[in-house]
Amino acid sequence: MTDPLQQAVAWLRGRHGTLLSSVTNQRDQPMRSPQVGFTFGGAFARITARLSWFLLVPHRGIVVYLLPLRNLPLALLMVVWIAGCSPPNQYQAPPPPAVTVAKPVRQSVTLYLEETGATEAVELVEIRARVAGYLDEIKFEAGQQVKAGDVLYVIQQGEYQAKLKSAQAEVDSAQAEINSQQAALKLAGIELERQKKLKIDNATAQSKVDQAEADLQTAEAAVDSANAAHNSAKAAFDRAELDLQYTTVTSPIDGRVGRSLVKLGNLVGENDATHLTTVVAYDPIYVNFNISERALLQVMRGNDRDTSEKADITETKAYMRRAVDKGFPFVGHLEHADLGVDQSTGTFMIRAVFPNPQRSILPGLFVRVRIPMGTAERAVLIPERSLGADQAGRFVMVVGDDNVVERRNVEVGSKYEDMVVVTEGLNGDESVVIDGIQRSRPGAKVAPKETQLSNVKGDLEIVEEGGQSPNADETVVPAPAGTEPAAEAASSSGTGSVVESPLRGQAATEDSTKANE
Question: What are phi and psi of 138, to 5 degrees?
Fold first, then answer.
């Protein structure tokens, strides 16, 4: 077949002769000298003078041809013809992305309930002035460790010493009055006896006997009044003595004293009990936390024991960590559970107590608390990195037999190192995307590469390696070997059966169930 380009050139040569020949020669002969370039420029000037417009036609990306627009239909036909001779572009689909998949691990684990709590001092005392006066002495330094009975402040004592002496004098006066009235009473009794004897002998009138009896009763009343006055004076003395004691302000507990809120020489206790400072006992320390109504019901459901047996929650271990801790280095036990669910919040309050001899836990901290909930047999575990999260919740990507990705919404529970327990959403037979979850799209194909996950080895109650506070200068209370917690909050309704529920009175699991091989 004749080259369409040659046909077009032949036609153009018939119309434009030498002018177009110099142009088309550019396809076969490169410019070798300035004369060629000059000839080309001259030809271009002459052809543009004769033709109003030209159409540029690329052919195979190398040569540009000029076609006059005066023959526009033929020019367009030439363009379509020449373009149709080029091979068409076709879309090449990219290969499916490569991902790593693995089947979940089936293993027995210890389930834990994990909540956020706040620490509270077991003993915290606000030291206040109980009497009015000027502050004479401050006998401590801020932050000092004090014992019960140590003197913290001395308030001006002169006034109270004088009041005590005055009260003592009143007591002495009342005692003297009692002695006087008792003597009068004795005399009245003697006079009555004498008048009665005289009456027997008809040596006195009955009126004198009656008068003697009345005098005796009066003397008895005077003695009673003197005793009452003495008691009042004694009470005033005791009050004055107590006020004098209050001028010496002491610590009622062992603990750490804070800064003084009142400077030396200031008047305290004039209109109210002035707050002077605070003493806090750090060892032990409380942690208060709330669990949801649903978690409480799951705990209650996890035990089939006779409910008539009184549960002792103090046997249940509790594990705690601060924001900077790795693992759960503090071990204590439950101390108190509320009487009922708070209807305003739908939560149930529980208190745990932790030893704190090094004062590593301060009151008012937000902490995480874990409580052992029992053992789940053959729980489903996957690496934590295989989890995704969005507004719909947690999910994993599962690869089917045809290598098509499927999204599975899951509920997670216990955690051990980099593995988490899946309580809902997986049965353990799926191929879960471990690496490459960002490249996986639901409904799209992938190129899976299967790997094998290893069972979690060792004691599942050890949650992380280290288990110590990152502050090397701080001493914490280490947990006994094999008793640190292993998991985040887990629901007893998840995959695997819950064997025991320690919050109903059973002791916390001391040794975790070994891994199923």
Answer: -120, 115
Q: How many CB atoms lie within 10 A of CB 76?
A: 13
What is the distance between the alpha carbons of residues 197 and 121, in angstroms, rounded to a whole number? Answer: 77
d(CA 285, CA 195): 78
Q: How many whole angstroms separate alpha carbon 51 and alpha carbon 66?
A: 11
Check: CB of residue 391 under 8 Å from CB of residue 406.
Answer: no
**Predicted TM-score of the model (pTM):** 0.57
> Which value, to the nearest 10 degrees, does the dihedral of the CA atoms of residues 188, 194, 196, 199 take?
-130
From residue 67, alpha-carbon distances to 79, 111, 187 in Å are 10, 84, 159
Query: 386 to each of 75, 377, 379, 449, 457, how far by Cα in Å?
Result: 62, 22, 17, 15, 20
Whether pLDDT at 47 is above 80: no
Query: In 3-state terms, what secondary structure has residue 347?
Result: strand
**Could you please report the per-residue DSSP string of 348-398?**
EEEEEEE--TT--S-TT-EEEEEEEEEEEEEEEEEEGGG-EEETTEEEEEE
Q: Which is nearest to 373 in space by CA: 287, 513, 499?
A: 499
Structure token pair of residue 355: 């030893």
| Alpha helices for 121-261 (secondary structure H) | 158-200, 206-246
The single residue listed with the structure tokens 């091979």 is 87
Q: Above 60 in pLDDT, residue 219?
A: yes
For 495, the 3-state DSSP assignment is coil
Q: Buried (b) or exposed (e) across 369-405, using 16+ Cβ within 10 A?
A: bbbbbbbbeebbbbbeebbbeeeeebbbbbbeeeeeb
Residue 417: name the closest of 369, 475, 484, 497 by CA: 484
Number of Cα atoms under 13 Å in the Cβ half of residue 62: 9
Residue 392 sits at φ, ψ, to 5 deg, of -80, -10
Kind of pairing, strands 105-128 and 151-155? unpaired
Nearest-5° Cα angle at 100, 94 to 463: 150
CA pair distance 191, 184, nearest whole angstrom: 10
pLDDT surpassing 80 at residue 480: no
Assigned token pair, 91: 């879309």
Residue 422 or 41, more confident = 422
CB 501 within 8 A of CB 374: yes
